[in-house]
Amino acid sequence: MLKEIFKPEIIELIEKKEWKSLKEVLSDWPPQDIASLITSLDEKDAFIVFRLLPKTMASEVFSELDANTHEIILSQLTNEQVKEIFLELSPDDRTELFEELPPEVTQKIINLLPPQERKEALQLLGYPEDSVGRLMTPDYIAIKADWTIEKAIDYIREKGIDAETINMLYVIDDNNKLIDDIPIRKLIVSNPKNKITSIMDGNFISIFVNEDQEEAVRTMKHYRLNVLPVVDQNGILLGIVTIDDIMDIMEEEDSEDFTKVSAISSHDVGVGIITDLLKSPITTLYKSRIFWLVALLIMDFVTGGIIQNFETLIGKYVVLVTFLPVLVDTAGNAGAQSATLTIRALALGTVKPADWIKLFFKEISVSTLLGISMGIGISFMGFIRGGFNIAKVVILSMFINVVIGSLIGIILPFIFAGFKKDPATASTPLITTLADIIGTGIYLTVATLLLG
Fold first, then answer.
1. Which of 192, 204, 430, 449 is deepest in the core (most CB within 10 A)?
2. Beta carbons of 176 and 199 less than 8 angstroms apart
3. Does pTM surpass 0.85?
4. Are 266 and 259 in contact (CB under 8 A)?
5. How confident is the model over 242-270, as pLDDT tens digits?
6. How many C-beta neighbours within 10 Å does residue 15 have?
7. Residue 73, domain CATH
8. How far, rounded to the nearest angstrom, does the alpha carbon of residue 316 sit from its chain's CA centroid?
9. 41 within some domain
């Protein structure tokens, strides 16, 4: 990366106060690399580099910075400077930044904006959190069906400079209802005297404004779209979602799912704890991990209580204890496997919540084969350590635990989905802890029945 090569030179130029040379060095850098450089510098030097950027570039770089750096830079800028930066941002980038900043800072910045931009910002922020409405931009090109192609091209020349993209044009009626979308290449190769209706086919894909952002991701991936129009319940065109926004959402959703699968709570502290671990405060990391650790600890006490109830049996057959870890761990691993496959299938949309019965019975077949295989695998050690009587206990327990653990892994994501919760909340630590509790009970119950 550029920052790794030129960072020592940048720091030297700052120390010597050679601002002209520093501006020349940074003039050809992409905004992403300048943002990466700024986040790697101390606060004083980071602010100096940012203030040396031209106004337009400063806004592009600002949109690439993390939330902590945003607050640091904003705290050192005048109101007029803040206003200039946010006016240069596109509405969707502006909304994304508002969501990251503390509410009081967001409110202060919104009040600095001119009336039209303030109205636009408040409208976008008025949609539900994580909805497509928060993601869309109102900067698109809309044309009328009765226009000539020549008139439409002239309109694009006039308004296109302020649009997010002109690759796709949207045909609307007099009520602003979306009736078609047309790639710009169709206009370019068509007769300028023909009307827009001559190149319309009436086929288009759109998404409802209150739909979850993940649905926009799935829709654009499925239809291989670079831009997706956003409509209200009456089909009125409100804005568009572009591929760059979708890529950001995909990264954010993947990070969020990763934290949930690992039993880390990112809701209150943000997924930045994964992508910016070194800069995250100790208290933030502590808060993200303590809840599930305590919850799982309490659940583990149940396992201890089960073992205590079988003290007499364990005292008579001490060798049973040596098989307990491998039995419950295998059950937990089997459950984690099935849960991972289910969560991913639900996320991709290849499995729907209504499919849980089909998947449940399919998993019975798969887990039965796995249980038989693992039972055979543990049988040898069962015979070696405890003879025939112990071997039959561990073989049967292994079979039942693998089947039960796998079914837990399948059913938990569907349960969370049924309660409108993210299926990824059925995390690996939660499944393995449940497998510990149930697996321990099954093992010692089987031992009691078979050994008396």
1. 430
2. no
3. no
4. yes
5. 888 888 777 766 666 666 655 565 555 55
6. 9
7. 1.25.60.10
8. 52
9. yes
